[in-house]
Design a protein that fits this description.
The chain is of the alpha+beta class. The protein has 7 helices and 9 strands; from the N terminus they run αααβααββββββααββ. Among the domains are: 29 residues; 124 residues, Alpha-Beta Plaits, CATH 3.30.70. The protein starts with a helix and ends in a 19-residue tail after the last strand.
Length: 239
């Protein structure tokens, strides 16, 4: 048998062995099928499109700011820069904000009190879920029992007491203020929260979640504290 024939047989054997190995691996580890129905997939697609739309809106906003910086003179640029800084401070929670929104009230269920059920304060987990739902449906700024929420605000249990920004909140009644970008979005948020089965989770904890109708002007105070910074260090030495 010549070397050429041996080489061909070796190559063919290698290919056949590789195909058998791939087929065996496929049988042992079948590809997981997506078992979601068409409506679940459409819902996820709609959410992704909405996120994409929000990103495009943000890009357009920043492009507009850049164009304003390029078109204005030095004095106008200074005014624009101050306005930008103030806007960033509002987003960070360092300045009070006002605008359209709605107010939520969390209270003990009166009928459960009459029958002697023990009323517990709202748990941090339930409060965090509510906050996430608010942000998910276009809530911009949130204040819980007088505490302004920031990106660094902790909601947690400290010695059996629910706290926001490490400050205990009222055990019997909690008021939540929400500000949205427009009045139309405030009405949309009201409709979602009012119809959401999420309210049943509060009733299971012997609490009532009351959603008041959207208002055209709500005021939220600034964050009462010092924001921590993990990456920047303040320089006290002036140059």
């Amino acid at each position: 048998m010549t070397t050429k024939i041996v080489t061909r047989i070796t190559i063919i054997s290698f290919i056949v062995g590789l195909m058998i190995a791939v087929q065996y691996n496929t049988v042992q580890n079948p590809t997981l099928r997506d078992t979601r129905d068409i409506w679940a997939i459409r819902q996820e697609l709609a959410e992704e499109k909405e996120n994409h739309s929000k990103l495009l809106t943000e890009i357009a906003t920043y492009n507009t700011v850049i164009e304003q910086y390029e078109d204005e003179d030095a004095e106008s640029q200074a005014v624009l820069l101050n306005n930008t800084v103030d806007d960033l401070k509002r987003q960070a929670g360092l300045l009070p904000v006002n605008g359209p929104g709605l107010i939520l009230n969390i209270t003990p269920a009166a009928e459960l009190i009459q029958f002697g059920y023990e009323i517990e304060p709202i748990s941090p987990d339930l409060l965090i879920r509510l906050v996430n739902e608010i942000y998910r449906y276009d809530g911009l700024y949130i204040e819980i029992d007088g505490q302004r929420l920031t990106l660094k605000s902790p909601i947690r249990d400290i010695n059996g007491v629910t706290t926001v920004n490490s400050v205990p909140i009222d055990e019997a009644k909690v008021n939540i203020k929400i500000i949205t970008e427009t009045f139309e979005k405030a009405e949309k948020l009201y409709g979602y929260l009012y119809a959401s089965p999420f309210r049943d989770d509060f009733y299971l904890d012997n609490l009532n979640l009351s959603i008041n109708e959207a208002q055209k002007n709500i005021t939220i105070s600034e964050f009462d504290g010092k924001l921590s910074n993990d990456y920047l260090v303040e320089n006290d030495e002036g140059e």
